[in-house]
Amino acid sequence: RPSLSVDPVAGLMLEEVSLARIAAVVGTPVWVYSAGTLRRRLASLRAALEGAGLNATIHYAMKANDNLAVARVLAAGGAGADVVSEGELRAARAAGIPASAIVFSGVGKTERDLRLALAEDIFQINAESAEEIEMISALASSLGRVARVCLRVNPDVDARTHAKITTGKAENKFGVAIGDAPAIYARMAALPGIEPIGIAMHIGSQITAGMSAYRAAYAKLADLVRALRAAGLPVSRVDCGGGLGIPYRDEIAPLPEALAGAIKATLGDLGLPVMIEPGRWLAGPAGVLVAQVILQKGATRRFVVLDAAMNDLLRPAMYDAWHGILPVGAAALTAPLSPADVVGPVCETGDTFARGRAMPALPPGSLVALLDAGAYGATMSSTYNARPLAAEVLVDGARFAVVRDRQSYEDLLARQRLPAWLSP
Ligand code: LLP
């Protein structure tokens, strides 16, 4: 993890800033993101696509991390956005991503979502059902607009990732069955208010099992595009989705060159521009969650109880996900290790970040960093147990700034009302 290093005095550093210093200034738990890592990863992804000779655009999946500063760094590097809600569309625009670089995905866009997408004249809407296409056509026509629409197909391949984040099997709710796509696409071409511009797919997330699922899905897509063209239907682009996995532990994750190669080999001869929608690959390794040890307890089993919990970083509880955990203090980084369960203070056994993990002694007040927490970390947080949302910090070289304030207890209660009849 190139942006993390150890200073013999200051301990764990992200770029040139000590995480202990950030914790001292901002408090814990706190998400800390590296601008340099975001920039480097975006650049290497682009280099891989260009190296394969692809005419490709990158649309960052905002769901991974919708912090405005994170999106701004990626936007400045030339990324567009993939959004799935009005909130994400607004965040993308607020971060400076032009409407002309925004794709709207999602299996259940509301009329309100679509109205905003049309009003903003975003680049592309990915439709996921015949029903949605009728809805888009009716709405766009009534507003005097033409929606550029890609049809998301479900290629029925197994991306061999966690069942909860597999999206390209026939049994999953996403897209239209690939066999139904030609008829639906023809219908799109016939309807007012819709300009059919291409085909989209996304087969799942945290894909590490090589390129075979991607290749199988893209090959089906290529056949579909050829069939549509043969039927005289216009196809001007292919949206290849996101899903490229990262190594959280010791997985051998495919490199962007492998993805670019798979796209080139299967879709290259169509001569179409392609798009990808990466979220995790860009943002995951760029962030850590810094937490403080409240106490260690247990005689037979050592529990390290943090002030961060499943409401902050849900992935271990939700997907049994493994996240690296490093002590932040210089001395602890070289101290002897023994097994510990690293847990949060929430009243659920699932509130466990790691079981039997080799950790140094971590007396109360020590800091730890949960690694690779830049994607699906803060965005999946809740206020469960009435715990305020943690602060977010961006590090850029030797600078750092709070990019989202910690939620206050006033904020936490601000939207609640007691009905008059309950008044004393
Ligand atoms: N495009 C679409 C249509 C998607 O549904 C997703 C993710 C992406 C792109 C970005 O996928 P990525 O490149 O980040 O893998 N919360 C889960 C991950 C859920 C992913 C949902 N869709 C986790 O923490 O592992």
Automatic annotation (TrEMBL):
GO MF terms, alphabetically ordered: diaminopimelate decarboxylase activity; pyridoxal phosphate binding
Q: Does Kinase count among this protein's keywords?
A: no
Which family does this protein fall into?
Answer: Belongs to the Orn/Lys/Arg decarboxylase class-II family. LysA subfamily.
Top-level taxonomy: Bacteria, Pseudomonadati, Pseudomonadota, Alphaproteobacteria, Acetobacterales
Q: What is its EC number?
A: 4.1.1.20
Residues at which substrate binds? 280, 315, 319, 348, 376
Residue numbers binding pyridoxal 5'-phosphate: 243, 277-280, 376
Q: Which NCBIfam families match?
A: lysA
Which major enzyme category is it?
A: lyase
Matching entries from Pfam families are given as:
Orn_Arg_deC_N
> Which residues carry the post-translational modification N6-(pyridoxal phosphate)lysine, per the record?
63
Origin species: Humitalea rosea
Share what the entry says about its subunit structure, partners included: Homodimer.
**Keywords annotated in UniProt:** Amino-acid biosynthesis, Decarboxylase, Lyase, Lysine biosynthesis, Pyridoxal phosphate
Domain Orn/DAP/Arg decarboxylase 2 N-terminal, which positions? 37-283
Name by which UniProt lists this protein: Diaminopimelate decarboxylase
CDD domains given for it?
PLPDE_III_DapDC (cd06828)
Q: Which cofactor does it need?
A: pyridoxal 5'-phosphate
- Is this entry keyworded Lyase? yes
The UniProt catalytic activity note for this protein reads: meso-2,6-diaminopimelate + H(+) = L-lysine + CO2
Q: In which pathway does it act?
A: Amino-acid biosynthesis; L-lysine biosynthesis via DAP pathway; L-lysine from DL-2,6-diaminopimelate: step 1/1
Which PANTHER family would you find in this protein's record?
Answer: DIAMINOPIMELATE DECARBOXYLASE (PTHR43727), GROUP IV DECARBOXYLASE (PTHR43727:SF2)
Q: Which PROSITE patterns match?
A: ODR_DC_2_1 (PS00878), ODR_DC_2_2 (PS00879)
